[in-house]
Amino acid sequence: MNALAAVPYAEFGIQSNFSFLRGASKPEELVVAAKFLGFSSIGLADRNTVAGVVRAWQQAKVEGLSCHPGCRLVFCDGTPDVLAYPRDRKGWGHLCRMLTQANMRDDSEKGAPLLYRDDLFEWGDLMSLAILPDLSAPAEDLGLISRLKDRFGKTLRLAVSPDYHGNDRYRIEQAAAMAEASGIPLMATNDVLYHTSERRRLQDVLTAIRLNLPVAEAGLELAANAERHLKPPMEMARLFRRHPQALAQTLRFAGELSFSLSDLQYNYPDEPTESGLGPQAELERLAREGAAIRYPSGVPADVTRRIREELALIERLNYARYFLTVYDIVKFARSQGILCQGRGSAANSVVCYCIGITEVGPERIDSLFERFISEERNEPPDIDVDFEHERREEVIQYIYSKYSAKRTALAAAVVSYRGRSAMREVAKAMGLSDDVRSALSSSIWGWSTSELGEKETRAGGLDQTDPSTRQVIECANEIMGFPRHLSQHVGGFVITRDRLDEIVPIIKTAMDERKMVEWDKDDLDAVKILKVDVLALGMLTCLQRAFTLLEG
Predict the structure, then answer these.
(1) Is 140 left (phi over 0), alpha (psi -120 to 50) or beta?
(2) Is residue 433 part of a domain?
(3) SS3 assignment for 533-548
(4) Are 337 and 374 in contact (CB under 8 A)?
(5) Under a CB-based contact definition with an 8 Å cutoff, are residues 387 and 536 in contact?
(6) pLDDT of 490-531, one tens digit each?
(7) Three-state helix/strand/coil letters over 481-526
(8) Nearest Cα to 437, choosing from 456, 455, 411?
(9) Are 370 and 252 in the same domain?
(10) Are strands 384-388 and 506-508 parallel, antiparallel or unpaired?
(11) Among the residues of 129-223, which ranges form H helices?
(12) pLDDT tens-digit series, residues 237-258
């Protein structure tokens, strides 16, 4: 047994760098550190989002650690923060609906959901909850805790963390008294923002970037110490030595959580078929009829064999409905005279060619179907279809009208720090002048993610041996790859049979008429949720205009 883990303990108050510009560690780093320290399990609870839980879950599978997806609910009406963890699949749906409701309010801004106390009372069923009361004004929270207990019963805890301001003994005793007075259990947490104490410096820089202030002027907005890191269970036992039940409560909390992201059984929409056949039979019919059109002199034996093999694999992986959806979208576009063309790895599929999604037979380009779908890789297919860029909006509106806003939204794109943006924002947070910041960032080419160093400091006229310069470079390298915000994917639509907002929260985009989910392409692939890429290509518009001129 890990010597650091002589006391069983689970940490649930963890925020990652998906609590944008607050957490200073990646979800993967937190999971690896938790495994090394010997935690029995952990939970990731980012601030009003579940954008990072897929990455933590994937890393936890590698490490063999139990990792629970959750959320830190931060309210806009003075309600104390609440750690919310779904107990089962339906509880996950409730959490996603709650966050979607907060995101979609008319007066909320993109990335700034407005969550109210009533939202928790409406959607908090089937979750385990831990309230983080304001211990500077405990009397104000006792009434709320009593109401929460009446509403949620045994699923509610009172969580407390040490803050290392010299009053922790009093602070923990105060929380214990509140818990006893309210009749709910006390639960320990360390309110984690990073996996190791060395990240405190980066967390200060992130705070300064968020506040748009130099670190030197951020004052009391910065943490007073470097203690918001994962601590070994033995150290947590020492900190809560007068209340060992607070550590035991973390294990009981974990024991209530049976939900895993692997429980998200994606339900692809049932596409009505022209023939009345089931999805697989309909796809087989379309492929046979399309093959006869594509090969009017007779379908070659090797093409017939490939069609049979592809259809068998599609049936085993249950992807027929996905192919029918793409076929339906392409069919709509062509019925409206909109030029479109499938591309990418879909061109490796003879079925895509036969049903009209792509226009070049894979036998002509000597490609492998396994690049498109592989049973061994167990990855979902990815069909990209380009449409005339001036008329793609018609296709998008067709998708919205057919599937409704409750069942479709765009995938997210995680906009991350690259070399130039990392250097520029860290340099600003460290108080460097405008001309030095400009010289540093302009020395970095394009979208580079290479490690920064001597070349950049030389370009900025800085002394690399100077401690301040080293801090700028080191923090810029650390922040590279951190998420800055979520943006909409260029055209990747997620479509479901049931409510999409019970699978993943939906948020606003910069365009009022469009919405997106909180997960990007890689996250969607990890939980085996398919997306349809509806992309724009200017050259197709040029071709359409050329055809019009020729006809005229």
Answers:
(1) alpha
(2) no
(3) EEEEEHHHHHHHHHHH
(4) no
(5) yes
(6) 888 998 888 999 999 999 888 877 899 999 999 998 998 888
(7) CCEEEEEEEEEEEEECCCCHHHCCCEEECCCCCCEEEEEEHHHHHH
(8) 456
(9) no
(10) unpaired
(11) 138-152, 168-182, 200-211, 215-218
(12) 999 999 999 999 999 999 999 9
Report yes or no: 504 and 521 within 8 Å, Cβ to Cβ. Answer: no
* Domain of residue 52, CATH code: 3.20.20.140
DSSP character at residue 116: -
Identify whether residues 291 and 150 lie together within a single domain.
no
Q: Which of 372, 353, 370, 352 is nearest to 361 (CA)?
A: 353
284 with 320, same domain: the answer is: yes
d(CA 35, CA 80): 30
The percent of the chain in helix, strand and coil, each rounded to the nearest 5, is 45, 15, 35
Closest CA to 524 of 279, 315, 264: 264
- Do 423 and 476 contact (CB within 8 A), yes or no? yes
| 303 lies in some domain | yes
CA distance 180 to 158: 10
Task: Output the pTM of the full model.
Answer: 0.90
Residue 142: both structure tokens together: 């006792």
Q: Which two tokens stand for residue 422?
A: 């990392």
pLDDT of residue 455: 67
In a domain, 473, yes or no: no
Q: Which residues pair with 400 in a beta bridge?
A: none
Provide the residue range defining the domain that includes 133: 3-195+230-263
Order of strands, edge to edge, in the sheet holding 506-508? 340-343, 384-388, 531-537, 483-495, 408-416, 515-520, 506-508
DSSP characters for 225-246? SS--B---HHHHHHHTTT-THH
The number of distinct structural domains making up the chain is 2
Half-sphere exposure of 151 (CA within 13 A, CB side): 20
The amino acid that residue 63 corresponds to is: E
User: Are 51 and 87 in the same domain?
Assistant: yes
